[in-house]
Every structure is written in structure tokens, then in C-alpha cells.
User: Fold Nuclease domain-containing protein 1 from Clarias magur.
Amino acid sequence: VNVTVDYIRAATTSTESGPVPAFPERTCATVTIGGINIAEALVSKGLATVIRYRQDDDQRSSHYDELLAAEARAIKNGKGLHSKKEVPIHRVADISGETQKAKQFLPFLQRAGRSEAVVEYVFSGSRLKLYMPKETCLITFLLAGIECPRGARNVPGGAPEPFSEDAALFTKELVLQREVEVEVENMDKAGNFIGWLHIEGVNLSVALVENSLSKVHFTAERSSYYKTLLSAEDVARQRKDK
Assistant:
């Protein structure tokens, strides 16, 4: 994405703002992707409204006129918030840790092969929370084929294993809030799904191993990705030896 800072709104205190709650300093910017202004796109679909400013307040978007025009079109066409129709209810089932519900979903996800997902949260290098749009559910997903360093939450005594934070950061930078594809192979006793996650042709398990942030787990021997994981491990060793 491209980010252009329009202005920085100074912090306000409760004494200055009276009944208005205090706010920290805020950087306000225009964010575009592929030439599309995200704010304008949201407003045009009726998923956001444009803030009205005082005439003497020049701290506003550099594309303020375009935002107003987009809002006018959305109102005219009855888009989103401006629609007179009843708002549809979108129900999302959170089956994270729900063993029985997870068992019901497992066969569908296994048969689906590669399924689209969005990474909602990264708990660690190999543990993620995914939104499955087709199934309209949230699941906890564990990367298959690897043994990733555990963070403080998963270690008795609360001391994180070496490189656990590096692995978590690597995964966040690569996939957090991104569209991915997953192959679900199995699930554990706690209702967490186990499988392979791909983003733009990159297998996350392989990428972690290649960057010396995970080891190949013996269970990977049964996988079609086993040779790829071993090759990634060789690459990691060669980098370490240099």
C-alpha cells in the first residue's frame, strides 16, 4: 500500500475538550492500493461517512472533495448505510477450541483441498486464527510439518523459547490481515486444525524452516511437502555455516 500523511492531529486532554474524551496524538493519512483510495472506496459503498469540519479547520484529507462526491453518490444510490432496506445479518461461527463443532467442519475442509482464508490474528510463529469466508467461521490453525519455538504463554514457567518472538514477527509480517490459502489435513484434541498455509506461492511452514525459525517435525514424513521442507532445512544450514 501507499500511505500519504495528510495531517497530525494534536493530543487533546479532558480539560481542553470538556465533555469530549481525551485522545492521543493521531496521524491521519490517505491510504491507497493499486491507485484506489481506500477511504473513498469505503464511502462509495456506503460503509463509511465523511466527517464534516468547521470552515476554519484545514486539517482534513487531501482528497476531501472526492470523499464528499463519493458520499453523495452513495446516498443517491442507497448504498450500505444509506440503504432503506433491512440490513442483512452476517453470522460468523467461532469454532476455535470447540472440539465437537471442529469435528463437524473437518471433513468439509479436508475435501475442499485449498480453501481461501484471511489471517485474523497471529498467536505465534505457527499458530494463527483464520476467518474462512466460504464457511463463514473462525478457526485456530496450526502449521503442519514443523516444530516452532514456543512463546511464553505456552511454556511452563512463562519463559519463551529462543527465537519464538522472531518466528512470531516473521509470520505477522508475512501473513497478518492478508488473504491466504490453506490445506487442512487434520485436527488435534483441542479442536485446532492442522495443515499448510500458502501466500502468493509461499508455503509458510517451508519459509519458517528456511529462515531457521522452525525445525522439520517427524510428522512431515507423511506429507507431499517433506522433500521441500528438507531442502529448506539444508538452505538454512548453509546460511548458518557461512
